[in-house]
């Protein structure tokens, strides 16, 4: 009993979902980088997600994969499924026995779907938000989920939310395909909490800073030294000169905060990291 959106932009694949159900992220989203993504919901059969992904990987389009998987399910009219393949083919299925309101909207590269919703405006709002939001796939998925939440979402209430976005080599230090993977398993406002955690994830793990959003180390040396001193990483009085000791203290702080992938080997600091350092040093 859930609302979700499944999508691809031809590079990333992902699912965003929310429900009045504990840990919805453990059951609804299924995805494989460079292959596709699936949401299995209503009286969910998570096995279908793996089967559909496997069929897409073998070359089937999203619709054919879903239809073949459901043909083996005697309770398919209780199921709701959205699927996309990496080529942008999208297909939604809402079984006749899914509790009202239940429905889906399909567009190029996405399916917005849900059941036990406040009304059709939930999936319609998600589709509009997805199509109008600029940015990467993760931005479009989050915008769609927030739009569905504002439009009434699950009419029973709120409990959990999740988002997963996969990109080949797009994960931590390029060692995984997990670009974003966040779950809010039990919270009074899970979609808002998902957005809050995403901001931390983005700052810590995503490398998509504006190339113009930088500061020169020499211009902020005194501020950074003072901030690092307050946090216990710089042991001297600020000199206003960015020297080896300042560089070492800054790198130690960045590693402590898990920002090692945001360290630059030049004379600049990312603006996002600089602002965060000043902010936490003043708390």
Automatic annotation (TrEMBL):
Species lineage: Archaea, Thermoproteota, Thermoprotei, Thermoproteales, Thermoproteaceae
PANTHER family, alphabetized: BLL2871 PROTEIN
Putative peptidoglycan binding domain segment(s): 204-277
Record's signal peptide: none
The organism of origin for this protein: Pyrobaculum aerophilum (strain ATCC 51768 / DSM 7523 / JCM 9630 / CIP 104966 / NBRC 100827 / IM2)
InterPro entries per UniProt: DUF1028 (IPR010430), Ntn_hydrolases_N (IPR029055), PG-bd_2 (IPR014927)
Protein name, as recorded: Putative peptidoglycan binding domain-containing protein
């Amino acid at each position: 009993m859930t609302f979700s959106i499944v999508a691809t932009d031809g590079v990333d694949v992902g699912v965003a979902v929310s429900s009045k159900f504990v840990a919805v992220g453990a059951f609804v989203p299924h995805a494989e980088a460079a292959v596709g993504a699936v949401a299995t919901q209503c009286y969910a059969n998570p096995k279908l997600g793996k089967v559909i992904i496997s069929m897409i990987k073998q070359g089937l389009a999203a619709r054919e994969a879903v239809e073949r998987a459901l043909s083996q399910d005697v309770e398919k009219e209780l199921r709701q499924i959205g699927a996309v393949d990496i080529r942008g083919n999208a297909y939604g299925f809402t079984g006749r026995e899914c509790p009202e309101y239940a429905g889906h909207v399909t567009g190029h590269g996405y399916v917005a779907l849900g059941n036990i919703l406040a009304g059709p405006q939930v999936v319609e709002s998600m589709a509009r938000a997805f199509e109008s939001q600029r940015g990467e796939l993760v931005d479009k998925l989050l915008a769609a989920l927030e739009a569905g939440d504002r439009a009434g979402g699950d009419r029973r209430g709120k409990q959990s939310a999740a988002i997963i976005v996969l990109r080949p080599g797009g994960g931590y230090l390029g060692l995984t395909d997990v670009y974003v993977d966040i779950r809010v398993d039990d919270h009074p406002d899970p979609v808002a909490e998902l957005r809050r955690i995403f901001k931390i994830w983005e700052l810590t793990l995503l490398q998509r800073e504006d190339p113009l959003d930088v500061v020169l180390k020499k211009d902020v040396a005194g501020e950074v030294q003072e901030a690092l001193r307050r946090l216990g990483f710089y042991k001297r009085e600020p000199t206003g000169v960015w020297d080896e000791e300042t560089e070492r203290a800054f790198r130690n702080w960045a590693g402590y905060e898990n920002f090692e992938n945001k360290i630059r080997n030049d004379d600049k600091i990312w603006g996002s990291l600089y602002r965060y350092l000043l902010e936490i040093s003043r708390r």
